[in-house]
Design goal:
Length: 153
């Protein structure tokens, strides 16, 4: 599955205003229109925070991938937020997070959800890819960087 098949340009926030994990997750959830996210944002937020309680999705190197499953979704939803200041996310390396890829999946999409999660994680292990996303001047440029990397997998 291509990352760009679920990540739309409108689902990218180039400069998050949030200063903490909870605020960042809430802010990123606002990109999804009601017709694609059939549950109220507080429910989606609760699902994501329950996952965070199991262990931080801050995977290190300035990256976090909060994710969860929600009944009623028709497809996987993926959004991206970038913080220019960095956000404390309880990451495994203790460093601030600059890139957040937030994923919500239907409950019956476990296989696709995990494959996409693994692909995003693999893409984000590339330091030059992370740097290009952080340094991108616009949301369109961020999307293009993601699309180019996506084509390599």
């Amino acid at each position: 599955m291509k990352v760009t098949s679920v990540l739309k340009r409108d689902y990218i926030i180039g400069d998050l205003e949030a200063t903490d994990k909870e605020g960042a997750i809430k802010e990123i959830l606002t990109v999804f229109p009601p017709e694609v996210l059939p549950v109220e944002s507080p429910i989606a937020f609760k699902v994501l925070m329950e996952r965070e309680m199991l262990g931080s999705t801050g995977i290190g190197d300035g990256v976090a991938i909060p994710h969860g499953t929600i009944g009623g979704l028709e497809e996987i939803l993926l959004a991206c937020g970038r913080s220019k200041k960095g956000i404390f996310f309880s990451s495994c390396d203790g460093k601030p997070v600059y890139l957040i890829f937030l994923m919500l999946a239907p409950e019956n999409y476990a296989g696709q959800h995990l494959k996409l999660l693994a692909k995003i994680s693999k893409m984000l292990r590339d330091g030059s890819f992370r740097s290009s996303l952080i340094e991108a001047a616009t949301v369109d440029e961020m999307y293009d960087v993601i699309a180019e990397k996506d084509d390599q997998f």
